[in-house]
Design a protein that fits this description.
With 295 residues, the protein is an alpha/beta fold. Helices cover 44% and strands 15% of the residues. It binds coenzyme A and magnesium ion.
C-alpha cells in the first residue's frame, strides 16, 4: 500500500472527504487527533463508517487507529470497532513486538465474539514513539501473523525525549529522528512486513513532501502516511513504480532467464548479479500491488 491518510474518527465530514481522496488506506483515528471527551463519539462514528462502507467496491482499505495499550481505552475501542470488520487496526506507541502479540490476542477474542472471520483483521504498528521502543525495533518478526506494516513518527518521540524540535533550521529532521527512520526500515524488513514512512506534518509544503517521499522510496520504504488529502496524489505518484523502472526490471529478469539463471549477466554494458535480480523482482511485485499490469 502506497498512501495512508489519517482522518480524525470524530469528523464525519473528513471521513467522507477521505473516502474520495484516492488514498490506498484510511487511518481512521481514535487516538491523538480526538479529544478525550470525544473518544466514545469517535468510536461510534468510526464503527458506523466502517460498517457502512465495508462492502463498497473500489474503496480504500479501512484501518482504525486505536488508543495505546496503557491508556485503558484499548478494550473499549476494540469491542466497538472489531464487529464492524475493518481491514486493519493501527496500534500506536508499541514498545516491542510483544505489544502486537497482546493486541493480536484481544483482536482474536473480539473476532470470535462478533463472528468475524478469525485472523482476517491486519495490524500495523507505530513502533518508535518512546525512547525505550527504539531499542526493540528488532522484535517484530513472529509477533503476529496479522502484522502487515511498521511505521515511525517523530512527534511523540520528540515529546518523550524533551527535545525542543525535531527539525533543523533548513526543515530537515535532526539526527535522532533520521536514525529512527533508518531503524524502522531495518525493523520492518527484518520482520517481513511493509516499511511505511512517517507523515510530513507541514501539509502546505508539497515540494518538501515530494522530496521526503522520494528519499524514502529510494531507501526501501514502500509507502507514506499523510494528514491531508492534498498529500495523497504526490505520495501515490512517488510510490508507483515508473514505466521506465518496470521496463528495466522486466529486461533484467529476461536477461537472467536467457542466461539459464546464471549468477551474473551483462545488460546495457552493466554487470548484474543476484542482488540486482532480487531488486528487479521486488520492484515488479510492488508494481503489481499498485495495480499496474506488468505482462
Ligand atoms: N482527511 C479528510 N479530509 C481532510 C483532512 C483529512 N486528513 N484534512 C483536511 N481535510 C478537508 C478539510 O475538512 C477541508 O474540507 P472543506 O473544504 O470541505 O472545508 C479540506 O480538506 C481542506 O482542508 P484545509 O482547509 O486545507 O485544512 P484544515 O485547516 O481544515 O485541516 C488539519 C487541517 C491538520 C486539522 C487536517 O488536515 C486534519 O485533521 N488532519 C488529520 C489530523 C490527524 O488525523 N492527525 C493524527 C495523525 S498525526
Ligand atoms: Mg501520536
Amino acid at each position: 500500500m502506497r498512501s495512508y491518510l489519517f482522518v480524525p474518527g470524530d469528523s464525519e465530514k473528513k471521513l467522507a472527504k477521505g473516502l474520495a481522496s484516492q488514498a490506498d488506506v484510511l487511518l481512521i483515528d481514535l487516538e491523538d487527533s480526538v479529544a478525550q471527551h470525544n473518544k466514545q463519539e469517535a468510536r461510534t462514528i468510526a464503527a458506523n463508517f466502517v460498517k457502512h462502507h465495508q462492502s463498497q467496491q473500489n474503496r480504500p482499505q479501512l484501518f482504525v487507529r486505536i488508543n495505546a495499550l496503557d491508556t485503558g481505552l484499548t478494550e473499549a475501542d476494540l469491542a466497538e470497532i472489531i464487529p464492524a470488520n475493518p481491514d486493519g487496526i493501527m496500534v500506536p506507541k508499541t514498545l516491542s513486538g510483544h505489544c502486537i502479540t497482546q493486541i493480536d490476542a484481544k483482536v482474536s477474542a473480539q473476532e470470535a465474539l462478533a463472528g468475524v472471520q478469525q485472523g482476517s483483521i491486519q495490524l500495523m504498528a507505530v513502533a518508535t514513539e518512546t525512547a525505550s521502543a527504539i531499542f526493540n525495533l528488532g522484535t517484530y518478526g513472529n509477533a503476529s501473523p496479522r502484522l502487515c506494516a511498521l511505521t515511525w513518527g517523530a512527534e511523540d518521540l520528540s515529546a518523550d525525549l524533551g527535545a525542543e524540535t525535531n527539525k533543523d533550521e533548513t526543515g530537515a529532521l535532526t539526527s535522532p529522528y533520521k536514525l529512527v527512520r533508518e531503524l524502522c526500515l531495518f525493523g520492518a524488513v527484518a520482520a517481513g512486513v511493509q516499511p511505511i514512512d512517517a507523515i510530513h506534518a507541514n501539509f502546505r509544503d508539497l515540494d518538501g513532501l515530494r522530496a521526503e517521499a522520494t528519499a524514502a522510496k529510494r531507501d526501501g520504504y514502500i509507502g507514506k502516511m499523510a494528514i491531508h488529502p492534498a498529500q495523497i496524489p504526490i505520495i501515490n505518484e512517488v510510490f508507483t513504480p515508473s514505466f521506465e523502472a518496470i521496463d528495466k526490471a522486466k529486461r533484467i529478469l529476461a536477461a537472467f532467464q536467457e542466461a539459464g539463471n546464471a549468477g551474473v549477466v551483462g545488460l546495457d554494458g552493466e554487470m548484474l548479479d543476484r542482488p540486482h535480480l532480487r531488486r528487479a523482482q521486488t520492484l515488479l511485485s510492488r508494481a503489481k500491488s499498485a495495480g499496474i499490469s506488468i505482462d
